[in-house]
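2024-03-11 09:14:02 INFO receiving multi-entity request
2024-03-11 09:14:02 INFO entity count = six
2024-03-11 09:14:03 INFO echoing inputs for audit
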Amino acid sequence: MTPLPKDEAKHRRIIQAAIQVFAEEGVSNGKIANIAKAAGIGKGTIYEYFRSKTEIFLAVFEYYFNKLLKGYEQLIREDLDPTRKIEKILDYTFDSLDEQLSNGSSPDWLIFLEIFLQGYRNEILGDGELLFSDTLRKMYTLFEPLLEEGITAGVFKSLETEHAIFILFAALDGIGLHYFINRNHYQKELLKTTIKEIILHGLLKTDSRKV
Amino acid sequence: MTPLPKDEAKHRRIIQAAIQVFAEEGVSNGKIANIAKAAGIGKGTIYEYFRSKTEIFLAVFEYYFNKLLKGYEQLIREDLDPTRKIEKILDYTFDSLDEQLSNGSSPDWLIFLEIFLQGYRNEILGDGELLFSDTLRKMYTLFEPLLEEGITAGVFKSLETEHAIFILFAALDGIGLHYFINRNHYQKELLKTTIKEIILHGLLKTDSRKV
Amino acid sequence: MTPLPKDEAKHRRIIQAAIQVFAEEGVSNGKIANIAKAAGIGKGTIYEYFRSKTEIFLAVFEYYFNKLLKGYEQLIREDLDPTRKIEKILDYTFDSLDEQLSNGSSPDWLIFLEIFLQGYRNEILGDGELLFSDTLRKMYTLFEPLLEEGITAGVFKSLETEHAIFILFAALDGIGLHYFINRNHYQKELLKTTIKEIILHGLLKTDSRKV
Amino acid sequence: MTPLPKDEAKHRRIIQAAIQVFAEEGVSNGKIANIAKAAGIGKGTIYEYFRSKTEIFLAVFEYYFNKLLKGYEQLIREDLDPTRKIEKILDYTFDSLDEQLSNGSSPDWLIFLEIFLQGYRNEILGDGELLFSDTLRKMYTLFEPLLEEGITAGVFKSLETEHAIFILFAALDGIGLHYFINRNHYQKELLKTTIKEIILHGLLKTDSRKV
DNA sequence: AATGAATGAGCTTTCATTCAT
DNA sequence: TATGAATGAAAGCTCATTCAT
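2024-03-11 09:21:47 INFO inference complete, emitting structure
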């Protein structure tokens, strides 16, 4: 009850086709027939590789998740001081969004979100495994060492890491999403600088608490 | 192409019913028949008030948007110093999320997001009016005076307001969404304090730039 | 979870259409679309009256069962001596088969059998309620009083009624089925006489056991 | 349009596999893929031995028919008086049914019937050769000598053999089928005795016609 | 104005059959 | 000769929408 995939390349092609179709038609609106057409295969062939539409959802979700994870993991492993790393993570997020958009303009982020929402609702409603919120938390934890490193080094404030990292990731996600939606109305570089400024140095001009 | 509604109360009841159904079944999965049932009216009657399911989407979206807008507008109009206002906005966001969840736990935020995604996709693809991204920007602008006030008063740094406010709102949205999804894994009060700390005073322990 | 049927007449019309289609195409081969067409309604309408194809099976089965039951019940209630009743039951079986065949020649008996087989298999395999074999036994019991009456009256041998009646009914069923299949190769009247002869007086010329 | 089979053993293995699959899934529901799996060969190989699923049906039918025929033929050829032969035929029918059921409980009789029904319907509807009802009559004739022998010997009444044998076989078939379905509710030995009693000596206590 | 029975386009999924290897 | 990946016709079922009452 797992070994369906035969031709690994075709398996990937179907996922790519699904992404394309979901991007154009929406996730719960995306038709299997169109995925097949986009993949250049017969409708029935889809079912040689995936047991159901839901299984395609999950595969697409996993694909994105791993892509995201890999990108961030690499950054976090780099030998840089924590402040610089945060800056790079921010830059990376914006840049990879832009890249996605130029590469055919398929709004990947939305697909991810849409699958997530659908899966998450099922999760709440009792069906489905606790996949989605767990997955998300796996993402947060990825960033924890970064924060801990900075705190240990005495560069960052000694915030409660678990909650602080949640905030940073969630904020980044929100900013990414909104940037994506409004990409034509804001200047990327200015956004990047401003975010760094606020996150690193805060909104207040003078820190009234300093001794 | 506008004057359908006759009985204003019934019109509202349908929207409420739609929210309830969308919350339980998802937006593109929510059935008109169930909306009618939840509203206590006949299936056909829905079509006396809305021309199509899409029109219901939009009405629900508008309803949420106005609710959000009203909540934030009120806060922004209050006679408080800008720093305190930002704190109240944060508190309000978390508290109203919690309230939504306790009131029957129907995940309103998700509905908003789901409708948004769907509408936004159509926007990109050329159908549909430029409603969604414009709407969003209307939201941002709401916060602008708050920032300007703080800058003028010399309390906030003199950031480029348009971009700064975009960031603050987007971050808040992301944090709200993730909090919603993970509400059982984090402590609300600790989150609130940490967010304020980071946004207001920044992540760095000592501001190397201070004179 | 029962009150689907609205228009009783249409409900019956669908069952009739199903019988017709099952007769022509077979039970598991009979298409919903064709049932709809035969009933002169839309495909979707079927599902306003039946939740699934299986539910149509069962309704058709029930229809036949009740028809059979009613026919035999009436005969058994008649005020005749037991021997004569057995003869009438036999006559009735043959005559109603012939009537079915002349009325458009749709082989109802086969449909009954086919549904039975399908349902019975599911029964064996664990799905499905113990409907079919129970139903069948309800049929047998119907004939029990007839036998008991004859025994009490000293006309029939004192056989173990439960088993004897099983045999008589099963034999009748078999004979009915085979007659149906071979109706053009045998003479009805001769069959009827011969059956009565064998069942009532036995195959042996001289009953060697007689005292 | 006949010479497909190459490897006789594999041909038989496919038939056996088909029986197994039909027994579990039903005839029109039985999947070629599963037959192949059960036969331990590739799906495509089936088509080297059979042109279509229908051809498999027919082969299975033929297989059963020959098995039945052989069993009864053997009994009829035995050197016993006609009365005893009838008794043995009855015993044999019950015993081989029981044996089938204990041998993995696959309901072979049902498969035979199901294929028969399907084939017979096509026969009626004009497709298909006149295979099924002819086949059945071949079965009846098998028993004719038995009856003739008894009549000639003066043991049996001088009934019209063709019709009488039809009745005896049809009754036996019905009894077999019903016994199969209700095998847990009746006592085999009691059934056997009662059947013999009724068939041989008739239902009536005193034969009023005897001189 | 309100209804819900009727509808059919359209969806996912299945599976007998083909055919390149 | 044997295979199983590929296929698409076809089937059951859903549901937004219509419209007679």
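2024-03-11 09:21:48 INFO post-check: Chain C has a mean pLDDT of 87.
2024-03-11 09:21:48 INFO post-check: Chain C is about 75% helix and 0% strand.
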